[in-house]
Batch of 3 targets.
Target 1
Amino acid sequence: MSEAPESLQSADILQILELLPHRYPFLLVDRIIEIDGDRSCIGIKNVTFNEPQFAGHFPTRPIFPGVFLIEGMAQTAGAICVASKIAEQAKPKQVFFMTIDKVKFRKPVEPGDRIEYHMRKLNNRRNMWWYKGEAKVDGTLVCEAEVSAMLVME
């Protein structure tokens, strides 16, 4: 990735695959838009019925698992943190999800929904980042949380 995070406006799936180690079926963000360095962005996840979690969650009413909403938020924030380090010519070796706080689930997410992970940086110290995330479907808040990540540089 040759662009600095300040000029990176969006990241498609191929760029996300370069930034994150996650792969199917656990990559939970399809695109990232409105990137503002490591300060904020919106991650997009298109929920489809053919995803493996719906076979058991739940067979009579498919619901996107809440923990996947939280993980999608963390992956979205992690991707822009990694992009900011790459711009500094220092690609991290690993990204670790560290904490989850103030989680609230507001409404179920179902196949056919398009989730937007609205991520806003709260703080950054050395190799740690803290973000406030809001997951929305059609503008309606479905989940919110504060998450933190650590980048391992060695």
Target 2
Amino acid sequence: MSSSKQRKARQRAEHEQWERDQLQLAQRRRRNVLLMAAAAVLTLTLAVVAAVISTSRDAPPQTVGESASEPAKLIPEEAAREAQAAEVNKAIEAGDAIAEDYTVPAGTPVRSGLKPPPDDRPVACAGRAPANARATRPRYPGGPAKVLREGIDYVARVETSCGPITIDLLEKHAPVAVNSFVFLAREGFYDGLLFFRDFGGVAAAQAGSGDNTVGWDIGYRLPDELAFAKRRGYPVGTVTTTSEGPYTAGSDFYIAYGEAFDAGFETQRTQTVLGRVQSGMGVIDTLTSLDRVGMGGEDYAERLFIESVTIEER
């Protein structure tokens, strides 16, 4: 069988596996939503009972003229939880990013203690690993700082081991996702990270994880901004978030390199389109032509680094 036929057969098998995985994921999400709802009701009930007991035990005897309906004071932990929940609700109503901890100022880096694992694969295109390839990346539990300015067109210049990629960022269609990308790029967060995964089932190269794994948590979650995707789909060269449902996207992103990406999400547009490649798809073609290694064949035989990301304003 020719290499072309082998690749098509592999991608078809990967896509079938991806569809099975998506069905299982949807079932898990429904189950988790029900469990979370039940847990939230139980937690709220216990908090109310604890507050009532605490108030009745600690309150001094009422004297004549005191109101029996004075509100109970919350203990600090309860007050913090309520304040966090209130901020989360405000963010959801505004369609904004949800921060993990609203007591941390937006845009404040917090040391994660995690770094990419050792990796001795050669660098693609006879390149070299950047000096910061194994540096610890921070998290941003207070959410990203607001950096976008009205009326400005943003473009990302991504220098890689195999050459530059230019991405037109779609700030009008996905302002929250683009703001996050621009903020992280200006923080130098992406510099030295890998295109670490080939999502062959839907023909997408994945990058943007702080430790080059699928388990990275940036500290905040982005909303779905899907109107553009529902109108235009995901043609080759589309840059999207890596969402698994509402408020699950973070720092990671996909670059679609095949029509399977659009077909894979045809019935359910779950990925926010944050940009499109203007030039440099040849870099991604070079990447996806590499052999695959590792469990599931999702690792590339050679490493393609993001050496730097520069944001230009027009």
Target 3
Amino acid sequence: MNSLTEERWQAIINNDSSYDNQFFYGVKTTRIFCRPSCKSRTPKFDNVQIFLKAEHALAEQFRPCKRCKPNGLRLPNEEWAAQIARYIDMHIKEPLTLESLADICHGSPYHLQRTFKLIKGITPIQYIQKTRITKAQQLLKETDTSINEISMEVGISNPAHFATLFKKITTFTPSEYRHMNRNE
């Protein structure tokens, strides 16, 4: 593993294609690696790992970027969808949109939507909602945390929207769900 020098960092920030094939950079949080010229969102400095060859990144369990296809490699759709699902699961409290996911996972929103639905059977937004409501159900069953706090804990900052979404997915209000599961 080589270090991230100021020169390499500037190449990444400026999407400098003259550095392509001199090195690749991996993003530790997403486990994706790119060419310096990749137009994806600039990662945080501390999250960057440098590789001299694409094979080194692959050996470290990094996956090739869908956008810049380093060394001509491309992440299979199944792995990409699984990676996106894992990212959602780990960042459920954060604001997640199709655009932000596409940016983070190095693809276009259209391709992300289409591929994720093809592989998982639901759209990324449906997956986010389902994951949030599943987590909320668990918290309603296992804790005395207020419904407003649970709403925030699962990444929905508007409690009224949370209650509406919860009822749409489960057919119960959060209060009804908690009461039902406490009596069992």
